[in-house]
């Protein structure tokens, strides 16, 4: 009987210590957020967390949040049908992690953990704060991915354009004529430096180039939709993205790259044009992020 009593005391002491340690860990998190003015002073979990290494607790937690959430993102991208996007995320994890750190992503996720256990909140308020903060975190994740994959996405697009096209039917050749004419008419290329043959196939031009460019625009828009599938899930987001790219001279940049693909460029020149192409699209990433 005495033995059972001792065991009960030991067990209850251990459980109390476990609860106390958990409260102190939450206090570490809350204090970290309070110090950064990210949480009200009302959120308090323990009067004393001094004996805990709070800096170490927070550093470990932030690392765990980034690792776990990026792994979940990779799994989600796989299940949401875009293998190409998943590979882009994998290839740019360091950049994405740096963007997440700069955006305060871990702090946002830590706030959710505080809201979920805090006794300061009514159920309705807890649900509202948790949902809005989760949405904030999801947006930070999407924006971080967007900023890091935009360069590689358009770098690959430039490389694909440089490979040239397969043999085109007559309609395709006429549209290509219109693209060359568009580039020359808008002075997108210095024709003193590069000679542009508008009609290398010597075909009879029977197409209205205004209509031809509309077809080229539709093709580019479809490519954008396919490329960003998985990162933008709503039609309104995709349309916003297309508008940003098109108003940001996306058609000019791709049309120029198409014409450059037909020029006899040195590797140095090709790399120079590639850098310009990528930088032009990367400069749109802040506006593109507003579509998330």
Record the SSE blueprint.
Layout: H1 2-35, H2 54-79, H3 83-91, H4 93-103, H5 105-117, H6 123-162, H7 170-185, H8 209-227, H9 235-247, H10 250-261, H11 267-282, H12 285-289
Gist of the model:
By secondary structure, the chain is an all-alpha fold. It is built from twelve helices and no strands.
Straight-line N-to-C gap: 65 Å
Structural class designation? mainly alpha
Question: Tell me, what's the shape?
Answer: elongated
Report the mean per-residue pLDDT as an integer. Answer: 83
Series of H and E elements: HHHHHHHHHHHH
- The number of helical runs is 12
Low-pLDDT segments, ≥5 res: 2-20
Range of strand content: under 5%
Q: How many DSSP E strands?
A: 0
Q: How many domains is the backbone divided into?
A: 2
Q: What is the share of helical residues?
A: over 70%
CA radius of gyration is 28 Å
Largest pleated sheet = none
């Amino acid at each position: 009987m005495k033995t059972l009593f001792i065991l009960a005391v030991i067990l209850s002491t251990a459980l109390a210590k476990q609860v106390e340690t958990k409260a102190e860990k939450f206090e570490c998190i809350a204090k970290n957020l309070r110090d950064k003015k990210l949480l009200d002073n009302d959120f308090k979990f323990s009067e004393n967390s001094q004996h805990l290494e709070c800096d170490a607790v927070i550093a470990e937690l932030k690392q765990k949040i980034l690792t776990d959430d990026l792994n979940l993102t990779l799994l989600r991208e796989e299940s949401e049908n875009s293998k190409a996007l998943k590979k882009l995320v994998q290839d740019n994890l360091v950049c994405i992690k740096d963007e997440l750190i700069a955006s305060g992503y871990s702090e946002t996720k830590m706030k959710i953990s505080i809201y979920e256990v805090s006794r300061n909140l009514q159920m309705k308020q807890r649900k509202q704060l948790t949902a809005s903060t989760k949405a904030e975190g999801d947006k930070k994740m999407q924006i971080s991915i967007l900023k890091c994959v935009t360069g590689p996405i358009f770098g690959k697009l430039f490389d694909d354009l440089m490979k040239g096209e397969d043999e085109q039917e007559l309609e395709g050749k006429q549209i290509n004529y219109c693209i060359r004419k568009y580039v020359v008419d808008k002075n997108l290329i210095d024709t003193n430096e590069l000679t542009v043959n508008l009609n290398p196939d010597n075909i009879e031009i029977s197409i209205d180039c205004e209509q031809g460019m509309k077809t080229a625009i539709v093709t580019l828009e479809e490519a954008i939709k396919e490329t960003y599938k998985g990162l933008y899930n709503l039609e309104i987001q995709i349309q916003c993205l297309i508008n940003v790219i098109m108003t940001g001279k996306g058609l000019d940049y791709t049309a120029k790259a198409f014409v450059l693909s037909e020029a006899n460029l040195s590797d140095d020149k090709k790399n120079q044009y590639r850098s310009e192409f990528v930088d032009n699209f990367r400069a749109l990433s802040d506006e593109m992020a507003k579509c998330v």
